[in-house]
Design goal:
Helix 1 packs across helix 3, helix 3 packs parallel to helix 9 and helix 5 packs antiparallel against helix 6. The chain is of the alpha+beta class and 392 residues long. The two termini are 41 Å apart. The strands form five sheets. A six-stranded mixed β-sheet has the order 1-2-6-3-7-17, with helices on both faces. A four-stranded antiparallel β-sheet has the order 11-13-9-14, covered by helices on one side. Helices cover 32% and strands 24% of the residues. The relative contact order is 0.19. The model has no long low-confidence stretch (mean pLDDT 94). It binds zinc ion. The site of zinc ion has 5 residues, from helix 3.
Length: 392
């Protein structure tokens, strides 16, 4: 296929392929590879189980430092949401394109794929690498191998632009996040004889109280007023356990998360949390040999903290024409992973996170046009080595 598809045509096709998080993704990968292959080198990075594939799509010489355009191809499910139109059929109404993933973040993917012919025609001195992950919506689970592959390119990229929805504003920082699920196992028994049983709900209640105290400490600790709130937060999302008043519960489950601010001593906070978990486990085991505390890490991504005066931020601002100082975002992205790999990273893409994950998600035709224009400017710049146009 050498016909050059428009952004809207590609977005229509992408939306029609559901590509919901935590499912096999061969359909969306096959379509993207098909669109990209005439213009770019397509590298497939399958996971160990073989049911998910990330894509690294490159135009231009790997031996030169390039530009990474990063996105995830998975979308959140639509079950229970009151959609006006079919979420998996792009519906255009009054300049808005409705469909699951239009803002988060198939709109950006469509713009990037539609720009591949222009990147190829530019015969770039500065390569463009399109890095497409999976399972981002369940905690950046599908980006690890992809980020490693990008970092291991013969020349380390100079900048990464993560196209999450920011209304095409340049964003330089977000908090990091770690999520946990802990399961307490105790020993059941009659509520009249609690001394012979081990109460799993009580064990998690004590742990929850300790976490709440730590949350208070964090609130009084390090501050960065670029964020709202300006401190790290520790939040308990759920506790489930027990079924009847007259039975000692032998199982309880709690989920909680830490959102850390960049530059704060997150390892120390993580050590405090580990110490609390160890203490809760030891207290359970001391009461009965079968009692225990199981800990699962649900998701983890690092904070993003690109300097406000970084030359890469100014470069992306020039691409967008947005000359406001780069801001911060409240939501997490894969940007922290690229930054951790040593690649200066900014977040900038079409759409609005406030429209994401909900019924009637949409992206504006004007927003896609602004992203197309940014990529057209980039296609013009990559004719020359990046040293000529990324300057301090
Ligand atoms: Zn997203």
């Amino acid at each position: 296929m050498n016909k050059q598809a428009s952004t809207e045509e590609i977005l229509g096709k992408l939306v029609s392929i559901p590509s919901i998080t935590d499912r096999a993704n061969e359909d969306v990968v096959a379509y993207i590879a098909h669109v990209a292959a005439p213009f770019a080198r397509v590298r497939r990075l399958p996971n160990a189980a073989g049911d998910r594939t990330a894509l690294l799509i490159s135009v231009g010489p790997d031996e030169r430092p390039g530009i990474v355009l990063s996105a995830h191809t998975d979308v959140v499910a639509v079950a229970g949401q009151p959609w006006t139109s079919d979420p998996f059929a792009l519906d255009v109404r009054e300049g808005r394109l409705y469909g699951r993933g239009t803002s988060d973040m198939k709109g950006f993917v469509a713009c990037v794929l539609a720009a591949l012919p222009a990147f190829a025609a530019a015969q770039p001195q500065t390569p463009v690498h399109v890095a497409l992950s999976y399972d981002e919506e369940i905690g950046c689970k599908g980006a690890g191998d992809l980020v490693a592959a990008v970092a291991a390119l013969p020349a380390r990229p100079l900048v990464c632009i993560v196209g999450e929805p920011t209304g095409m504003k340049v964003k330089r920082a977000h908090k990091g996040k770690t999520g946990w699920r802990v399961t307490a196992r105790g020993r059941t028994g009659h509520s009249a004889l609690p001394h012979l049983a081990v109460n799993a709900v009580t064990a998690l209640a004590r742990l929850a109280a300790g976490l709440a105290d730590l949350a208070d400490d964090l609130k009084a600790g390090a501050r960065d007023h670029a964020f709202d709130p300006p401190y790290a937060t520790l939040h308990i999302g759920s506790i489930h356990g027990g079924g009847a008043l007259n039975v000692v519960p032998d199982r309880a489950v709690m989920e909680f998360e830490l959102r850390s601010i960049p530059g704060s001593d997150t390892p120390a906070v993580l050590r405090s949390i580990d110490a609390m978990l160890d203490g809760a486990r030891a207290a359970l085991k001391a009461q009965a040999p079968e009692a225990d505390l199981m800990v699962e890490e649900l998701s983890a991504y690092p904070a993003l903290a690109t300097a406000a005066d970084a030359p890469e931020a100014a470069m992306v601002a020039r691409l967008t024409g947005d000359n406001a100082p780069p801001g911060t975002i409240a939501f997490g992205t894969e940007a922290g992973l690229y930054a951790e790999a040593g690649i200066p990273t900014l977040v900038c893409g079409p759409g609005d996170i406030a429209r994401a994950h909900k019924a009637d998600e949409w992206v504006g035709r004007d927003e896609l046009a602004a992203c197309d224009a940014m990529l057209a400017r980039l296609a013009d710049l990559v004719r020359r080595p990046a040293a000529d146009w990324i300057t301090a």
